[in-house]
């Protein structure tokens, strides 16, 4: 072993050339515009801050998703995962949700997580679709391996697309039997599930240039529901 | 019959709750009792409305349970299950107890905790109200029935998807002003109908109904304190009188109706309620309708007598049913956005109307409201309870 750089090179997984996800804008049911864009490694600490309070929210398996995503983001920032990417949804610059995944090889993608902070507007559905769009259309992959931790995820991905079983493959998320989105199923589902327009204006892009976080209390309330009140 | 007054009204926030069924019922009940400010006056009876607790919460005899929870012994206790009309049916039972002289104070509480089961089971338990041999066994669900109903109404009267969206937009806007509402998120015509993104934002549920045409599945509870004239006089404060109640039934299976687009049971129940109140639809200042699906608000607004048949969507288009219109409908946000914990809904509609008549609704207050009307739509229109409330000076 020569020096620390040599060791680091051994510890880092090899990297493929990955295309940049071209940002797009989506009008939500509320009329608000969500910009979907890729994040750089230096933005990861901001995302970790948003995820942190969700580590203790059991509802809809947010705790497991948050904990795993936290690790995946750290691994991405510090080069301990192969070919990962992260996309975020921003409404007026405020984080509404995030998705991530990685490329297994040139043909196959591995979907990791979808975490929605602003609920009730199908933000998660839009972001998951953007993730599939990235794998199939921009990375030109043949298929994406997918599992869901929550029943909501199962309904959104397995049923809505619909995904196909690939149970002989253990997904990286806990070795759960995998489901798969093949290219042809993606294109069949695209009119129903993939939306947004490009290019987006400079002004809109500027509004999404940096990531603002909602207050921690707001994040937890949006995810876990309003605090119960009485009259 | 002796006059009956509503002295107190309270509810929990609707949405997804971590509270138990009895915690929900107790909190709403205590809120209503506090609102009534009964002092030492005892509660003579308790009536609890609920539809699914036996199945999804594995709890029965809710009336007795609530008496015990609130230590209201030896008050009488009843539980009422009448599908989605359970709330107003329980209200009717409470009103009858006071009108007959059997009680002076009755607590009526509606409660449902549906989010404890997944969406499929929740949909199935509500579908169990349909005809077992003619509908349920073929997989009928409430969204399916509402979808077929909507298609017929649209074909017959020229109602379009934009009208359904207008109901959703209006009710979401009202719910945004209601701290007790399940969904406090406004929506736009572009976001749910006209832009390409709307296909994803607002997916199809049961043709022609889309996601934003359907109410959410909610947990929650609502309560009313009913009192006799003597007790009302002692309590003082604003007096809201139960002016009239009407109830009517129709065939269990929707297809057996001569005209499935004619909500006959709503028409009959409303007619009876107005007759008993000595009032007309034109006298009403504020309305709560059972908009489990957007099409139902339009159809019930006609069947209740507010607009001629086939004209409800036109009144909607003219803005007449908005909060600032001539006849505000669903200022609470309706089932569509306030939420629909099934057994609590009929009571919650009346809670909103009591608050409206007392001028306690803050940003969603209908100005100078003196007469109010509610329609609690059970089954798919096979059991409907209509109520008219009036504020006395």
Describe the structure.
Chain A has 231 residues and is of the alpha+beta class. Chain A is 36% helix and 23% strand. An eight-stranded mixed sheet of chain A has the order 1-2-3-4-5-6-8-7, with helices on both faces. In chain A, helix 2 runs antiparallel to helix 3 and helix 4 (123-138) crosses helix 6. The longest helix of chain B is centred in the first third of the chain and has 16 residues, at 21-36. Chain B is α/β, with parallel strands linked by helices. In chain B, the strands form two sheets. A nine-stranded mixed sheet of chain B has the order 3-2-4-7-1-8-11-10-9, sandwiched between helices. Chain B has a two-stranded antiparallel sheet with strand order 5-6. Chain B starts with a strand and ends with a strand. In chain B, helix 1 (21-36) crosses helix 3 and helix 4 crosses helix 15. Chains A and B meet through helix 4 and helix 6 of A and strand 1, helix 1, helix 8 and helix 9 of B.
Primary descriptors:
heterodimer, A: 231 residues, alpha+beta, Aminopeptidase, 8-stranded mixed β-sheet, 8 helices, 8 strands, globular, B: 393 residues, alpha/beta, Peroxisomal Thiolase, Chain A, domain 1, 9-stranded mixed β-sheet, two-stranded antiparallel sheet, 15 helices, 39% helix, 19% strand
